[in-house]
Amino acid sequence: MSELKTVGLFFLTALAEIAGCYLPYLWLREGRSVWLLVPGIFSLAAFVWLLTLHPTAVGRVYAAYGGVYVSVAILWLWTVNGIRPTTWDILGSAIALLGMAIIMFAPRQ
């Protein structure tokens, strides 16, 4: 799998997980409709399915995925919650993405 496809798949996986957690949050904390649980369930199911599409060992995928998740969560904070990331948020995201790249794309035998 190409590097671009791998990163794109990680990005979609992170969006599915964050949406799947955010929708129940809206119901529980913001008093929104209980019906938000339905798309939340589908989103979390999509998250699990997307994780199975990665071509490498599951432990490596989970470790690398964490770096992408951090970055997508910061983007979510900005685009959905309207909170602009700080320089430290951006730096932390960049370091997390660097860690993901090392884990996923390092040469292996």
Automatic annotation (TrEMBL):
<keyword id="KW-1003">Cell membrane</keyword>
<feature type="transmembrane region" description="Helical">
    <location>
        <begin position="34"/>
        <end position="54"/>
    </location>
</feature>
<comment type="similarity">
    <text>Belongs to the UPF0060 family.</text>
</comment>
<feature type="transmembrane region" description="Helical">
    <location>
        <begin position="90"/>
        <end position="107"/>
    </location>
</feature>
<feature type="transmembrane region" description="Helical">
    <location>
        <begin position="7"/>
        <end position="28"/>
    </location>
</feature>
<feature type="transmembrane region" description="Helical">
    <location>
        <begin position="61"/>
        <end position="78"/>
    </location>
</feature>
<protein>
    <submittedName>
        <fullName>YnfA family protein</fullName>
    </submittedName>
</protein>
<keyword id="KW-0812">Transmembrane</keyword>
<dbReference type="InterPro" id="IPR037185">
    <property type="entry name" value="EmrE-like"/>
</dbReference>
<dbReference type="InterPro" id="IPR003844">
    <property type="entry name" value="UPF0060"/>
</dbReference>
<dbReference type="Pfam" id="PF02694">
    <property type="entry name" value="UPF0060"/>
</dbReference>
<keyword id="KW-1133">Transmembrane helix</keyword>
<keyword id="KW-0472">Membrane</keyword>
